[in-house]
Amino acid sequence: MGQSSSAHRAISDSRVVKTKYGKVLGRRFEFEGKQVDAFQGVPYASPPLGELRFKRPEPPASWDGVKETKAFAARGIQKDAFFFEKTSEDNLYLNVFTPAWSPCTTSGFAVLVFIHGGGFVSDSTVKYGDVGICEHLCTKDVVVVTAQYRLGYLGFFTTGDECCPGNLALWDQTFALKWIKENIAYFNGDPDNVTVMGQSAGGASVDLLSISPYSRDLFHRVIPMGGNASCSWALHNDMVEECRKFAEKNGVKDTRDSKKVAARHRFVAYCFGLDVFISVSEMRKEAPAKPMMIGCCSSEGLILCKFGDTVRYMVSASSILLDLVSRPSFQLLGDKFTNIGVQTAVLETLEANNAPVYFYSFDYFNPKSWGPLSLRWPFKDATHCTELAYIFAVGIIWNFEFNDTDKRMLELTTRMWTNFAKYGEKIGDLLSKWPNSSPETPDGVPFHFIKRVSAHISTPLKNFQLNIFSC
């Protein structure tokens, strides 16, 4: 699994923070004189067990005394091919990493929230570490929050009525954002300066959160990475029918009885997208303008070499396509998997409102970052998830030693992301030459090309690329 690139250990306990529900105590780290406090395993909702299974989240119970929050909570129930840590249905916890020094402004530090990916069926906050966040993000004057949510059928099963209302994972994420709104000031965070980022399925989630009337007012900027609500795999046409079929397949004879269906399914990890009732493009038109930074990696489709069986459902790709080894073939798969959705999201957002949109392509990679998992790949390139190592300072899929070039890219990427969180459309000095996209751009949408510890504006992506899979 991914681990921190640093061997730092906590130097002491953190300060005690009093939240709305009780006091918490974490750990304190120090990096070149800068101290950062880490609070891990903080409950933001009641355990979704018993009568609360398949229900929307409810507030956590208050506690007396001081709760120790020094370790990650258990991962949600899931099926994962690589990571085998303890799992539990009781997984609605978040982690807060915050500078120990006082902010320069009375409003507090900018807040950067991360929603993990995993195809809606796997992953957790554990994989993204703690020390790397403290050392490379928090030391740049931001508070970072990572949050878990229910996965698979626990997060998306629905009967279409009040028994199992559906989209519980999104309600979990929304509840975490409400907790942040109410409590982040206690950690010196600014509740009026919150940026939410997510990758892959997490990218689709944060994009939907930014346009949903239930969550869009809880934060102010959004960073969908390697996935968004416009990707073909993000939404499901008829989740109720799929769930009824699944119930029948697993022994529920009368699927008209929602209570029997819900009682039968304790957990299952299977890949289903989100169920929404109006189009994403229409939701974008109704949503208030939010600055957006959005992008993907240069060869998103390359990951299908290893995870073809897992993502074939998502991209409807044939086995013949998955067996092709040419770079253009994988570019085509990447277009279907992510790239077209990214471009669609950019153009729909620009057409819907005047919010600044910053479009990037992450092309830097270290061939060692995927270890033996890349042996089946016909070529090496930045692919799905590659950018995460340079945001969290961890090997996301495979442990690898950061070389000097990796470390410089880590500094560049974390500076870009934290600048966006702090300044929004102003971006900051580092990205002062990065133009936001415009619907009036005649040749397409300009994007930021991030490669080999440099970043520059590249030739716009042409709009005709969007038409390849439209039929």
From TrEMBL:
Domain annotation Carboxylesterase type B: ranges: 14-260, 329-441
One Pfam family this sequence matches: COesterase
Signal peptide from the UniProt entry: none
SUPFAM superfamilies: alpha/beta-Hydrolases
Protein name per Swiss-Prot or TrEMBL: COesterase domain-containing protein
Biological classification of the source: Eukaryota, Metazoa, Ecdysozoa, Nematoda, Chromadorea
